Amino acid sequence: MNLKHLLFGFLIVTSAIAKAQDSSKKVLFTIDDAPFYTDEFKRVYNKNIDLVKDESQKDLNQYLNLYVGYKLKINKANQLGLQNGSKYVNELNSYRAQLAKNYLTDVKVTNELIQEAYNRSLKEINGSHILFLVDENASPADTLKAFNKAIEVRKKIVAGEDFGALAMQYSEDPSAKENQGNLGYFSVFRMVYPFESGAYNTQVGQVSQPIRTRFGYHLIKVNDVRNNRGEVVVSHIMLLKSDDKELNKKNELRIQELYQKLQQGEEFEQVAKQFSEDKSSAPNGGKMAPFSSGQLSAEEFENVAFSLSPETPLSAPFETAFGWHIVKFNNKNAVKSFDEVKADLQTKLSRDERSRLIENSLTDKLRKKYTITKNKKVYAAVEKALTEDFYKGTWTSEDVKTPFGETILTINTKNAPGRDFLNFIQASQKEALEIKPLKTMVSVLFEKFTDQQLNAYYNANLENEFPEFANVMSEYRDGLLLFDLMEKEIWEKSKTDTLGLQSFYDINKQKYQWNKRYDVLVFSSTKEDYIKKVQKMLKKGKSASEIKEALNSGKEIEVIDKEGLFEEGSTLLPKNVSDKKGLTAIVKEGNYYFISRVKDIIPAGQKTFEECEGKVINDYQQYLEENWVSDLKKEFTIKVNSEVFEQVKAEIKL
Asked: Which run of H or E residues covers position 518?
């Protein structure tokens, strides 16, 4: 999580969410005579009180202090003109564009597509295809040529010729030479939408009519349909791949050692905690979050996981692009209900090709919602201005000398000049449109131009159409300002003020201390007799590699070692390690026997600045901010209405 995310988390707690204020509002405090009201303060406090983890912030006096401090910072940011910075403006506009996507939809069509996606997600299709490439903007002649070719090949399939052989012969998908057009199993959102629809609307064993996508035409054969496999819950042990070839060889051998240990009866969870390099799952004994088909980046891992069962709960070691794994089956979950996955489906839909259907539906509604007026005189002038050079891609609006400052299109009160339409026409040459004659071309482009202007007008007025949109934008606007202000006044200073940082460290050295540390070699085994053998060999001065070579020479891995510098209190440090150098006694923890050789003991002591620089910077930032807010309180005049604040406290406690 970066600083900006942290800041906006704080903003949720301290920012006003709504602009509208009820009639009972009173002035709670002023900053340089600018009023801040009770309704805003109460709403924010009540809305966010359950999110506050620091109990001190639930105290209304402390909360008011934080709230006033926040408003002081926003005032300071505006005073410095940070709201006019290009970086700020660009990021705010970018956020608005992202937020606006939630409003630029047709709810009815969206819900229908979500339901369709869910219904399809219940099945997984094994399909093959033959691709006939044709560009999205190809001429009608080229498009018809590709279509006819697809029809001819389909006739061969219907006549009984082998689909795979024809895919190798005719498909322009390069992979067809190897897989005969077979795409394996897939479900919703795995293919472009028209292809997906073609596959789901074709019966098993049948071949579709030519399906048009942005890549060309496809013939789709459905080989099989199976029920969604649901979710599987597994645990795994993982050793990571790296750029170090020697380390990779070592890990490849180590995964086999660990597998042998598991086959000998050692607990999977304990082995995962000790040796798995997946930091997110190792502390939990290797247990992963549930996942379904297509959810992970490694298909090999998914296939192994889904192949396991209570009867065959453990996989052999296998390799993926990420490393080496051993997987243990825990259980399987049934397919989730519609309500459980609706939000996720909506997110995927917004990024998918089918979102165009939603946009088109919204545009149709906007045409009915707003008053649209076309200036026929200016439109006729545009028709005359367009020449055959358009089809060559050489026509330019600048060559048109007649002034087109007059309005050609009005949407409610917004006017679009004829020059904007001319520029739109020029830009449309890139699409290589072949519509003829020119008058028809102008008509088609004017409809597209109108759609563009409609959506732009609607988008620009979202704050007026939707109060909640205006509220969120207000919140983000202030949060972004606060981030820029903190970066300027606190964060950058804490990194560049080397003298101040060093001085802060020198004054607060007592806060930055090492616990006692142990340089230790630890051996473990589930068998007491083997750990005793390790003990004897360590006493003779044998190295870790010599011990492992001697005791793990058979089919089974009997002992495993771990070596490093461990701080006192570390869970990786066996309990019997003491302040005495040399060998410890043998100790049993759980199902494991441990023996350690303490090579060195580093006493507790002062951390150098370099060893704790990150923590010092964080603490210094907090120190600077506290002093800075105190300075702001002196710079601005703050007046709190104590009587009104007491009323607020009484109302909130009710």
From this structure: strand 517-525
pLDDT bin (cut points 50, 70, 90) of residue 125 is very high
**Assigned token pair, 141:** 């002649």
By CB atoms closer than 10 A (0-12, 13-18, 19+), residue 518 is: buried
SS3 category, 196? helix
Question: What are the structure tokens assigned to 537, written together?
Answer: 């060999």
Q: Which amino acid is at 395?
A: W
Q: Give the list of residues 6+ apart from residue 624 with CB closer than 8 angstroms, or none.
A: 489, 490, 493, 494
Question: What type of residue is 434?
Answer: E
Name 239's Cβ contacts closer than 8 Å, sequence gap at least 6: 251, 252, 254, 255, 275, 276, 277, 323, 324
- The verdict on whether omega for the bond into residue 467 sits within 30 degrees of 0, i.e. cis, is no
Q: How far apart are CA 586 and CA 523, in angstroms?
A: 10
DSSP conformational letter for 397 = G
In eight-state DSSP terms, residue 330 is E
Q: What token pair was written down for 631?
A: 């300075």
Please report which confidence band the pLDDT of residue 432 belongs to, taking 50, 70 and 90 as the band edges: low
What digits encode the pLDDT tens for the residues 297-331? Answer: 777 899 999 999 999 999 999 999 899 999 999 99
Q: How many CB atoms lie within 10 A of CB 496?
A: 9
The predicted structure's pLDDT at residue 347: 87
Contacts of residue 5, defined as CB under 8 A and 6 or more positions apart, other chains included, come to none
Let me know: does 76 contact 632? Beta carbons within 8 Å.
yes
Measured CA distances, 587 to 546, 547, 569, 578 (Å): 22, 19, 17, 12
Pick from 176, 175, 196, 174: nearest CA to 186: 196
CA-based nearest residue to 219, from 175, 160, 156? 156
Domains contained in the chain, CATH given: 1-103+467-512+608-654 (1.10.4030.10), 123-227 (3.10.50.40), 235-334 (3.10.50.40), 370-462 (no CATH), 513-606 (3.10.50.40)
The whole-angstrom separation of Cα 435 and Cα 591 is 78
How far apart are alpha carbons 229 and 140 in whole angstroms? 43
What's the token pair of residue 236? 């795994």
pLDDT in tens, 327-359: 999 999 888 899 999 999 988 888 888 888 888
Query: What does the angle CA 499 – CA 505 – CA 510 come to, to the nearest 5 degrees?
Result: 165
Strand pairing report for 211-213 and 182-186: unpaired
**513-514/560-567 β-pairing:** unpaired
Which is it for strands 216-227 and 123-133: parallel, antiparallel or unpaired? antiparallel
- pLDDT 10s digits, 237-253: 999 998 889 999 999 99
Alpha helix locations (H) across 140-285? 140-158, 163-170, 176-179, 193-200, 245-263, 268-275
Residue among 571, 570, 562, 569 nearest 597 (CA): 562
pLDDT for res 51: 61
Q: How far apart are CA 275 and CA 282, in angstroms?
A: 8
How many other β-carbons are positioned within 10 Å of the β-carbon of residue 295?
A: 10
The radius of gyration of the chain's CA atoms, rounded to the nearest angstrom, is 34
Note the pTM of the prediction, 2 decimals. Answer: 0.47
Give the tens place of pLDDT for each residue, 7-52: 444 443 444 333 333 446 899 999 999 999 887 788 778 776 766 5
- Which residues lie below 8 Å from residue 526, measured CB to CB, with a gap of 6+? 261, 264, 265, 266, 591, 592, 593
DSSP letter at 583 equals E
